[in-house]
Every structure is written in structure tokens, then in C-alpha cells.
């Protein structure tokens, strides 16, 4: 055992990077679910973002354009989901799953020519003296800009849902779409916008993987990150800051176990990697009883079809 | 009645060997994507060579990203039902699925890579002696490391991976008594972001040579960025780290695949358990990086020659187990059975063995 070789500052820094892609996808999905829609296609939208973000960044030479393209790619897939579920009234769960399969397949095709290429580098944000602070500088102030923007996004979503009028309408639609409809709110339009936002966030999360964290495109490279993001939303009981805490916790578990292993400590990796899913199952079980559901803060109309005639 | 009829049809099918102008249908199932540039890519390279070799006489098909268990069983059943003559299942974990499907389709020839379960006469096993290649990597890594720390990204604690770690360690230790191994198990064959994180962690903890027994190219890329060295896995990964990539064990399944299909076409196919190594050309080393000094390249070439000719076995005693108990006496050579079930680290590795 060589625990001394683990540097806590580096651990914290790695944790923030590991958490960012799932946090981005989760915060998007949180808004979607708050509006009453369950989109299980997060993995598919993430991989679309990862692939197209990569392709655009490589061809344009600009990581910024790559991220913009990734958000748009995620939105396109999300728009497809919105068309199917909101207009054609298909089942949310089945459509979401199909979206994931579609995204994985399509990107395998699109990305074929891009395996083995290095993307343009995303510069680290120069925070000057802040990054020189002992310990904290290394841990918190030497990241790329996306890490900070993601945190800002969490704050913005929190504020939006809690204080803004539009956010309250979105929540009303998610809690009880019939009531919201009766009040004259356009349920489908609200949901469409939420779904598009979710797609953009998932796309950004995917691009973070292909442009920064792995810095390369490989088919199927998200390997379940989208599912973790979905689990995270439930785990966080639909609260933005809690989603961030959860993402850092999950990221922390991954990074910590790698460090402990490298230091020669035997740890039950299988159980650790199972834990996000176990917690989610637990939350879902609790949710299935009515009383607990309310206390968990689940949107009342989550995963329920809305038709204006109903 | 229906059963009788099926039996009759089956026996007719058995009695008439495939017509000469009928292409042999061969199915491949892969655990990862063919674009992984590693393990699965290696098998698919061999499939293409096979196709080129036989031309119209064979018809190959692939299904990639097939999970172990129900998925694999479904895919292989589907292949068998649609007239596939031979199925290559190219991953360790397909063992139970291969055997369960093989029991139901006795006329289909199954070839299972790196497995150990052989319950039916139509299941053939084949494997490569990766530990032979690992010995060469260990030798080079042991000499090249400046921090005396080698990082090892391992997938699952199965004998093939464990014997690889032991072989690499023993040969690194032989040329560098101070060498230390840091080992991370990812419990996955293919997870680029986890492998990248693992590589970063190992480098952070002092490793300047990264070895991997996982299939993505992420670790080589991280090593390139961090300015350290790395070995690729299963395919030549030099494109992902031109400076970092010292060499790689490259799998060459094609000669074996071709010989097995040849045997099948001539009606001489029967179940085997082949374990082939450097000497058989089933694995080879990717071109040495120029940064490896000339004399070290020569040493590595000599080691390859000695292993290939059978003159030297990478597991030659005296070797103790991690807890200090003797495993191989002086001059004793490990038996295949012991290597195929290896579940312990050798003496000197400091990490604890995973359960």
C-alpha cells in the first residue's frame, strides 16, 4: 500500500473532469423530466454530440464550433424524439430507447473516417494567480472552461426552475399537465423546448468526452454515461444542486477507486461501479409508493401522455 | 411426427457435405466494435484476410458489440438457424453461450477464442500465448522506465490477463530489480474514458511506462499527451501516440482462421484446443519505436527468437507466488494447465490480488 502517492488535489481535479459530461447530460434531462417527459435517449444524444462535435471540431479546427455543433446535433435527435412523442404520441420509454440505439448506430457510421484523429486542443482557462494557490489552484482552478460553464449552468437551471416565471410554468406542466392546459399554457410547446434543451445538454456532454476527456473518437465511446446521467436525475430527486453533488460523487467514486487501485489497495470495484444503479433502483422502488413519491419530489405528470382532448 | 421429420431433415443435412460451389457461411461475433483499433479490430482483420483468401468460396458475416449471456446466445442461435456453417465467437466470456448453442446445433462448427469450456464435440477452442508477448514488453518496459514504475491497465482478473501481468513483471524485474508495478482493474474490455482516467492516475502516481490489457486506444493517447511511454494492445496503436508508443502485441489470427476453414471445407474439421504463440505467428510485435536503443531492440529480438523456438519459456523457475511460497523450482517450466488457470500474482508485485 502506498497511499502517500495519492495527491488529493489531483484527485479533486480529476473528479471534476470525470463528473462534467454526466453532469451536463443530467442537468438537461432534469429539465426534460421536470416538464413531465421521460427521455431515455440520453445515451444516444450524447454519442451524437460526441461524434458530430468531434467531426466539426476536426474540420473547422475550432473546439468551440465543435461544442456548438454537438449541442445542435443533440437537439436534432431530441427534436426527433419530440416529434414522435409529442405530435405522434408514441410511448416515451420505447421512443427513448430507440433513440439511443439509433444514435449509437448512426454515429458508428458517421464517425468511421474519424477514428485515430486528434481533435484541436481546448485551451485551459487561464485564471492567473488563482491557479497558483497551493492545493486549491491545482484542484479547482486549472480546468478548461466547460467545467466552469457547467457549474454555471447548474446554477442557472436552479434559478430558472425556482424563481423565473417560465420555470414555474415548466414545473406546472410537469406536475399536472391538465391543470396547466386549463390555465392556458401550451403544454406541448413547453415540453418541446425542454426536450430540445435536454438534447443540447446531452450533446455538449458527449462532446466533452470526445474533445476533452478522451480526446479522440471511438465508436460507442460513451459506454453508458447517458444511463448514469439518467440515474443521476432520479438520485438527485430532480434538484439541480443535488444532481451536481451526485455527479461529483459518482465521478469521485470512479477517480478514487482508480487511485486506490494504483496505490495497491484491494477494493471491491464491482460493487462500486454497481452503486449508482443500485441507488437508482432504490429510489425508483421508493417512488412507486405514492407517499414516498411526493416526498421525493418526482414531477406528477412524469412519463404521462398529454392530449389536449383528454 | 414433427420431431421425426426434423430429425430426418437433420440427418440428410449431415449426410450431404456442403456442395463444392456452395460458399461456406461463417459468422463472427465480437464483444466490441470493429472500430476499436484493438482486440476486435484484430479479429476483423483476420476475417477480411480469410475472405480475401477464399474469395467466393466463403461468405462471412459479423455481429459486433454483442454482450455475454442472452444476447450472445440469441445472435448465435440466429446465425445457426440461418444456415451458418462455422461460428467464431471472439471473446472469453462467450463460453457458456457457445456451449449452450453448440448443444442445440451439432452440425455447426463453433470456434471459441480464449475460452476454456468444451462440452460438445463441435466446440473448438483457440487462444494465443499473450504472456509470451508480455515477456517482451516487460523486458523493454523494465529497461526504458526512468521512474522504475510501470502502470498496468487490466480488464478482468482472468488467467490470460493475470499471466500477462506476471510475465511482464518477471521480465521487467529481471532487467531492472527496482521496478514496481501499479495495476488498475477496469472490469471492462472497452471503456475509453475510464481507460484514459486510469492512465492519468497511473502517470500521476509516477508511472512513465503504461501497459494495457484493455481494448481502446485512450491510454496510448494519454501517454502521448503526458510525454510518457506506452504499449498498445492487440493492434499496432502507433498512430495514437507516435512518440509514446514503444511497441504492441499484435494479434494475427488469420493463419489459424484460414487453416480451420480449410479443414472444415475438406470435412476434416474436428474440435481442438489450440494455444498458439509467437512461434506460430499468431502474435507478433509491432515495429519497435526508434527511441528504443539499438541494443535493447536486439535483446528484444533475441528474446522473441528464443521464445519462438521453444528454447526459452517465459515462466521458468525459480518463481515464487506473491506470498513467498514456491511455485516453480529452479529450471522448472510452467505447465499449460497451470497457466490457463493462473489466479495469483508472482512474488514482488505489491498490489493485492483482486477476488
What top-tier CATH class of the largest domain in chain B fits best?
Alpha Beta
CATH architecture of the largest domain in chain B: 3-Layer(aba) Sandwich
The largest sheet of chain B, given as strand count, sense and whether it forms a barrel, is:
6 strands, parallel
Q: In this structure, how is the largest beta sheet of chain A organized? A: none
Average of pLDDT of chain B: 90
* CA gyration radius of chain A, whole angstroms: 20 Å
| Strands in their spatial order, largest beta sheet of chain B | 2-1-3-4-5-11
CATH topology of the largest domain in chain B: Rossmann fold
Query: Domains counted in the coordinates of chain B: how many?
Result: 2
* Beta fraction of chain B: 15-25%
Secondary-structure-derived class of chain A: mainly alpha
CATH homologous superfamily designation of the largest domain in chain B: Response regulator
- Discrete helix count of chain B: 11
Q: Which H/E pattern describes the elements of chain B?
A: HEHEHEHEEHEHEHEHEEHEEHEEH
Radius of gyration of chain B: 21 Å
Q: What is the H-and-E element order of chain A?
A: HHHHHHHHHHHHH
- Gross CATH architecture of chain A: Orthogonal Bundle
Total domains of chain A:
1
Give the low-pLDDT segments of chain B. Answer: 1-19
Secondary structure tally, helices of chain A? 13
Kindly state the number of beta strands of chain A.
Answer: 0
What does it look like?
Helices cover 70% and strands 0% of the residues of chain A. By secondary structure, chain A is mainly α. Chain A has a single domain (3-296), classed as ABC transporter involved in vitamin B12 uptake, BtuC (Orthogonal Bundle). In chain A, helix 2 (42-60) packs parallel to helix 4 (92-110), helix 2 (42-60) packs across helix 10 and helix 3 runs antiparallel to helix 4. The longest helix of chain A has 27 residues, at 8-34. Chain A is globular. With 355 residues, chain B is α/β, with parallel strands linked by helices. Chain B folds into 2 domains: 2-128, 3-Layer(aba) Sandwich (Rossmann fold), CATH 3.40.50; 130-250 and 284-340, Rossmann fold (3-Layer(aba) Sandwich), CATH 3.40.50. Chain B is 39% helix and 19% strand. Chain B contains 11 helices and 14 strands. In chain B, the strands form 3 sheets. Chain B has a 6-stranded parallel β-sheet with strand order 2-1-3-4-5-11, sandwiched between helices. The radius of gyration of chain B is 21 Å and the shape is globular. The interface between A and B is large, with 40 and 41 residues.
Amino acid at each position: 500500500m502506498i497511499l502517500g502517492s495519492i495527491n488529493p488535489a489531483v484527485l479533486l481535479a480529476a473528479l471534476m473532469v470525470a463528473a462534467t459530461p454526466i453532469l451536463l447530460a443530467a442537468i438537461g434531462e432534469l429539465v426534460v423530466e421536470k416538464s413531465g417527459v421521460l427521455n431515455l435517449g440520453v445515451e444516444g444524444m450524447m454519442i451524437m454530440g460526441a461524434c458530430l462535435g468531434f467531426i466539426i471540431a476536426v474540420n473547422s479546427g475550432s473546439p468551440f464550433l465543435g461544442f456548438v455543433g454537438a449541442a445542435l446535433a443533440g437537439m436534432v435527435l431530441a427534436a426527433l424524439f419530440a416529434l414522435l412523442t409529442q405530435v405522434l404520441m408514441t410511448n416515451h420509454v420505447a421512443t427513448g430507447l430507440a433513440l439511443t440505439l439509433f444514435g449509437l448506430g448512426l454515429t458508428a457510421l458517421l464517425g468511421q473516417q474519424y477514428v485515430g484523429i486528434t481533435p484541436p486542443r481546448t485551451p485551459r482557462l487561464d485564471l492567473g494567480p488563482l491557479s497558483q494557490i497551493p492545493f486549491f489552484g491545482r484542484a479547482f482552478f486549472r480546468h478548461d472552461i466547460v467545467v466552469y460553464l457547467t457549474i454555471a449552468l447548474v446554477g442557472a437551471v436552479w434559478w430558472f426552475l425556482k424563481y423565473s416565471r417560465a420555470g414555474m410554468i415548466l414545473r406546472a406542466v410537469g406536475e399536472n399537465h391538465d391543470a396547466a392546459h386549463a390555465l392556458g399554457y401550451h403544454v406541448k410547446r413547453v415540453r418541446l423546448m425542454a426536450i430540445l434543451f435536454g438534447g443540447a445538454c446531452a450533446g455538449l456532454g458527449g462532446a466533452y468526452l470526445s474533445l476533452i476527456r478522451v480526446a479522440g473518437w471511438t465508436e460507442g465511446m460513451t459506454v453508458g454515461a447517458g444511463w448514469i446521467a439518467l440515474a443521476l436525475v432520479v438520485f438527485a430527486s430532480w434538484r439541480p444542486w443535488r444532481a451536481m453533488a451526485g455527479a461529483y460523487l459518482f465521478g469521485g467514486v470512479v477517480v478514487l477507486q482508480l487511485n486506490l487501485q494504483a496505490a495497491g489497495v484491494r477494493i471491491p470495484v464491482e460493487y462500486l461501479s454497481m452503486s449508482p444503479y443500485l441507488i437508482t433502483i432504490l429510489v425508483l422502488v421508493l417512488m412507486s409508493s405514492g407517499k414516498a413519491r411526493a416526498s421525493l419530489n418526482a414531477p406528477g405528470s412524469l412519463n404521462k401522455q398529454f392530449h389536449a382532448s383528454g | 411426427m414433427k420431431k421425426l421429420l426434423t430429425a430426418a431433415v437433420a440427418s440428410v443435412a449431415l449426410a450431404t457435405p456442403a456442395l463444392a460451389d456452395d460458399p461456406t457461411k461463417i459468422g463472427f461475433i465480437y464483444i466490441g466494435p470493429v472500430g476499436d483499433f484493438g482486440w476486435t479490430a484484430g479479429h476483423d482483420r483476420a476475417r477480411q484476410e480469410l475472405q480475401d483468401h477464399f474469395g467466393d468460396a466463403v461468405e462471412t458475416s459479423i455481429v459486433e458489440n454483442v454482450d455475454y449471456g442472452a444476447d450472445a446466445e440469441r445472435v448465435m442461435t440466429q446465425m445457426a438457424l440461418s444456415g451458418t456453417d462455422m461460428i467464431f465467437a471472439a471473446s472469453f466470456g462467450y463460453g457458456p453461450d457457445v456451449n449452450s448453442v453448440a448443444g442445440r446445433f451439432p452440425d455447426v462448427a463453433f470456434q471459441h477464442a480464449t475460452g476454456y469450456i468444451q462440452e460438445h464435440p463441435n466446440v473448438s477452442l483457440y487462444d494465443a500465448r499473450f504472456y509470451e508477448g508480455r515477456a517482451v514488453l516487460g523486458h523493454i518496459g523494465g529497461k526504458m522506465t526512468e521512474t522504475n514504475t510501470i502502470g498496468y491497465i487490466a480488464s478482468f482478473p482472468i488467467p490470460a490477463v493475470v499471466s500477462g501481468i506476471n510475465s511482464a513483471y518477471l521480465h521487467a524485474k529481471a532487467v531492472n530489480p527496482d521496478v514496481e508495478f501499479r495495476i488498475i482493474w477496469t472490469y471492462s474490455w472497452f471503456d475509453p474514458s475510464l481507460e484514459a482516467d486510469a492512465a492519468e492516475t497511473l502517470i500521476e502516481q509516477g508511472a512513465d511506462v503504461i501497459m494495457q490489457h484493455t481494448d481502446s486506444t485512450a491510454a496510448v493517447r494519454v501517454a502521448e499527451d503526458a510525454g510518457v511511454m506506452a504499449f498498445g494492445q492487440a493492434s499496432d496503436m502507433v498512430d495514437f501516440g507516435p512518440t509514446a508508443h514503444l511497441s504492441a502485441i499484435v494479434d494475427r489470427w488469420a493463419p489459424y482462421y484460414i487453416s480451420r476453414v480449410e479443414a472444415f471445407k475438406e470435412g476434416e474439421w474436428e474440435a481442438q484446443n489450440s494455444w498458439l504463440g509467437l512461434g506460430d505467428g499468431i502474435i507478433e510485435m509491432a515495429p519497435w519505436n526508434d527511441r528504443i536503443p539499438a541494443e535493447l531492440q536486439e535483446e528484444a529480438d533475441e528474446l522473441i527468437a528464443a521464445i519462438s523456438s521453444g528454447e526459452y519459456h517465459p515462466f521458468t523457475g525459480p518463481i515464487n507466488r506473491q506470498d513467498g511460497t514456491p511455485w516453480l523450482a529452479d529450471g522448472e517450466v510452467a505447465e499449460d494447465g497451470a497457466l490457463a488457470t493462473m489466479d495469483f500474482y508472482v512474488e514482488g508485485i505489491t498490489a493485492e490480488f483482486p477476488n
